[in-house]
Amino acid sequence: MKFLTHVPAAILAFLFLFGGLSFFFPLVPVPPMTGNSFTFFNLLGTTGYMAVVKILEIMGGVLIILPTKRALATLILAPISVNIFLFEICMIGIPGISILLIALIGLVIYQEKQKFMALI
Fold first, then answer.
1. What distance in Å separates the CA atoms of residue 39 and residue 105, rounded to the nearest whole number?
2. Tens digits of per-residue pLDDT, 54-71?
3. Which helix (H) or strand (E) holds 79?
4. Cα–Cα distance for residue pair 119/26, rounded to 1 Å
5. Domains of the chain: which residue ranges?
């Protein structure tokens, strides 16, 4: 049963590590973007903002693997997940993977709730 508590963190680690590393090393082909999403990513790509976000994704993905650092990892990954959700809603018009990300982040936060009680 203890194994099941690590599954959401493992899935999050995989998703964020894959997403972060795919930015720097093309692991899979990226479909072409059009319209507002193309303009948005073109703007962020030229400023270096996306590189910082992807580095944070990699750091959060590595930290969430370690049970003692999961609370810190959720503090890094939760805002990124919300931004992914807002991008999907505002630019694409339909949520995708962000629903899974937010659900998994919420589950990890619930599992680590004792560490967050000091913040409340």
1. 29
2. 999 999 999 999 999 999
3. helix 70-87
4. 39
5. 2-119
Residue 3 phi/psi, 5-degree rounding, is -60, -35
Q: What is the pTM of this model?
A: 0.90
Condensed to tens digits (0 to 9), the pLDDT of residues 107-116 reads 999 999 999 8
Region label for 35, one of left (φ > 0), alpha (ψ between -120 and 50) or beta (otherwise): left
What is the spatial distance between Cα 28 and Cα 8, in angstroms, rounded to a whole number? 23
Report yes or no: 65 and 13 within 8 Å, Cβ to Cβ.
yes
Contact partners, residue 117, CB within 8 Å, separation at least 6 = none
In the chain, helix, strand, coil percent, each to 5?
Answer: 85, 0, 15
User: What totals of helices (H) and strands (E) does the chain contain, helices first?
Assistant: 6, 0
